[in-house]
Every structure is written in C-alpha cells, then in structure tokens.
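User: quick one, fold this
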Amino acid sequence: MRTVEDTTRPETGSPGIDFPDKPEGPVVAAVLAGGIGCLALGVFTTLAEASSSIKDWLNWKDAVGPLAGKTGMAVIVWLIAWVALHLFYRDKPFETRRALVIALVLIGLGALGTFPTFFQAFASE
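Assistant:
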C-alpha cells in the first residue's frame, strides 16, 4: 500500500502535500485560444456585413446562410490558435491571471462584433 508523507507548507503553516510546479503554458494556450476564437467570430460577422463578396464566400450552405461560414471559420481559427499557442507555451511559465484578462478583452471584442447595432454600422449598402 502506498502512503503519502505529510509535510507542512511553510507559506501557510498548514499540513499538505508538496506538488511540483508545472508550467501553466498549456492552460494559458487554451484560455487565449478561446478568446481568439471569440474575436474571430466577431470579425467574421462584421466582415460579412461589410462585404457582399465575403458574405457570399461564407455562405457554405444555403439553408443556413453565411452563419455556417462565420462559425466554421471561427472554429478553424480557434483550433489553429490553440495548437500554435500550445506548441509555443507548453514548457513556459506564464501568469494565468494576465492570460485571463487578455482572453476576457478578446471575448468582449468578439461579442461586440456580433451585436447587430455594431456590425450593421459597416453595412455595404
């Protein structure tokens, strides 16, 4: 039977188990990629309203219209960003709080791009 030795954490004085520090890069990559994917959806939504050629290009299925292309491209951007950021940050330490703030800003900008009041201001008509 395997037992875990109890140790005292110097910073809190409470007993606990010491865990080795691991780089937070993979977590940061996932959080930032989510923000980038949200921003991409806002950008594609606004671009589809601003340009009829982009709107036609994003019309992958007539029954759905350009929504299929907008969300499809946003998912593709998200996946590419996640893989690239994971490869870049996988062994690097990074402050998770800073990544969360950056992701929240990107999510906010992406949400702004999906509001009709915003994207209709760029209408091509």
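User: anything notable?
Assistant: The radius of gyration is 21 Å.
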